[in-house]
Amino acid sequence: MDQKERRNYLIRYLIAERAEAEGIKSPKDMAGQKRLLRALFNVRMPQAATEEFLQIQDDYLREEIRQKGITDYRSLPEIQPDLSLWQGDISTLKCGAIVNAANSQMLGCFRPNHACIDNCIHTFAGIQLRSACYEMMRKQGREEEAGTAKITPAYNLPCDYVLHTVGPIVSGGLTKRHEDLLASCYLSCLELAEQYGIESIAFCCISTGVFHFPNERAAKIAIQTVKDYKAETGSKIKVIFNVFKDVDLEIYRNLLQQS
């Protein structure tokens, strides 16, 4: 199968799963097909799939990621010892673990084609990730608290693991409690990475964006928490601060060069 054939197979399979999707027609253009497939991935509840589906999905997603271009963290220059800054799509980064800014349900973003990192990671990891998160949360029996972290395999992503952390939601003014919870997100991920022998970790900008944490203050907390952890523990873990927006790139670059 080529990518078009895989994509059409996956669309047909996912539409057939959903009674309410009956009658949906796949667009003729590639961009439209990709949007429909991503939407179908996004709204799919955690459930079993056939081995054939999983194999075709895995082949499709890995080729899509390859075509986007994979970045090996070892190619990134260090601004400070063991600290790098990289602007790009975190789902294409080859490293030990990437950090997902998750919500308290830990099941990924269900909004079709939403631009958040949670949606992107779950889309390109494949349906196995949502199922793994569902099982993990079923066993836990409650929603995840802010400031904590969980670990799963990365499935079709080029990294080895995904660390899922729930950042604080800032409604109203920023408080010390918000700041402490954000620092706890970074600390929880670092500690979990060390437990699993992970040698490199890429942090996204946790709690900024739709969670409304001020970007510059969030970056200061991120950098200081990582540096304090490494100084206190002697950890040699490589840390990549991953940004997507130009404004965050400028903030992190200035802070790392100044500190």
Overview of the structural elements:
With 259 residues, the protein is of the alpha/beta class. It has eight helices and nine strands. A seven-stranded mixed sheet has the order 2-3-9-8-5-7-6, sandwiched between helices. The protein has a two-stranded parallel sheet with strand order 1-4. A hairpin with a 2-residue loop joins strand 2 and strand 3 (83-87). The chain is globular, with a radius of gyration of 19 Å. The termini are far apart. The mean pLDDT is 96.
Mean pLDDT: 96
Number of strands: 9
**What portion of the residues fall into strands of 2 or more residues?**
15-25%
- The percent of residues in helical segments reads 40-55%
Helix-strand sequence: HHHEEEEEHHEEHEHEH
Largest sheet: spatial strand order: 2-3-9-8-5-7-6
Number of DSSP helices?
Answer: 8
Low-confidence stretches: none
Distance between the termini: 51 Å
- Largest beta-sheet characterization: 7 strands, mixed
Shape: globular
- CA-atom Rg in angstroms: 19 Å
Structural class: alpha/beta
How would you briefly describe this protein structure?
The protein is of the alpha/beta class.
Observed structural traits:
alpha/beta; 8 helices; single chain; 259 residues; 9 strands
Summarize the topology.
Blueprint: H1 3-17, H2 30-43, H3 51-68, E1 71-72, E2 78-80, E3 83-87, E4 93-94, E5 97-102, H4 117-125, H5 127-140, E6 149-153, E7 161-166, H6 176-195, E8 200-203, H7 215-233, E9 238-243, H8 246-258
Helix pairs in contact: 1-2, 1-3, 6-7, 7-8
